[in-house]
Specification:
Number of helices: 5
Structural class: mainly alpha
Order of helices and strands: HHHHEEH
Number of strands: 2
Radius of gyration: 24 Å
Helix content: 55-70%
Strand order of the largest sheet: 1-2
Oligomer: single chain
């Protein structure tokens, strides 16, 4: 490949790239972690929208309660999980450490805690379904407790990975901040 000034300098075959600058590994890791967190935030948004749709349809009686069951009590506090989602989206573009920390703490309070409560709230209903085969709430013909346990399993994984990747990203940001202070 020729340079703008003419042909390549004599004696170079293109293998002398070792001395060139590279992107520091913590910046590469930061970009990769941000990408993963964004993907998880999109899945979290999808879960939140589906649960909000179920609650809205049920509360406004748009369809029969036999088609879409009324929400369980744990679903209402889970709607606050939009708070850590917003802070996470705000933290990523400008590497805002404060927003990321708020997102991580509020994820525990508004995401994980309602899911744990929901697991305990629905356990007697799940026992009744699996022991006696009786279900009283349905979502599109499926027992609501089964559908909501599936949602809980997916949501717990999403939130656990969000918190894990956020912690790793926070560590990367602190590493880059400490290196800047040393210079």
């Amino acid at each position: 490949m020729a340079s703008r000034a003419g042909p390549r300098a004599a004696g170079t075959d293109g293998s002398d790239f070792q001395h060139r600058e590279r992107v520091a590994s913590h910046y590469q890791m930061s970009v990769a972690l941000k990408s993963e967190i964004r993907k998880l935030n999109i899945v979290h948004t999808l879960i939140w929208v589906l649960m909000a749709a179920q609650a809205t349809v049920s509360q406004l009686s748009l369809v029969s309660h036999k088609v879409v069951a009324s929400p369980y009590q744990w679903e209402y506090p889970y709607f606050l999980s939009i708070v850590p989602l917003v802070f996470s989206f705000l933290a990523l573009p400008r590497n805002n450490i404060s927003y990321l920390v708020i997102s991580m703490i509020s994820a525990g309070l508004f995401c994980v805690a309602p899911l744990i409560y929901g697991t305990m709230e629905m356990f007697p209903v799940a026992q009744q379904l699996y022991r006696h085969g009786k279900a009283y709430r349905f979502i599109f013909g499926f027992p609501a407790v089964t559908v909501m346990y599936l949602v809980i399993v997916i949501a717990v994984q999403v939130h656990a990975w969000q918190i894990y990747y956020s912690k790793k990203l926070l560590d990367q940001w602190f590493t880059s901040t400490q290196e800047k202070k040393k210079k």
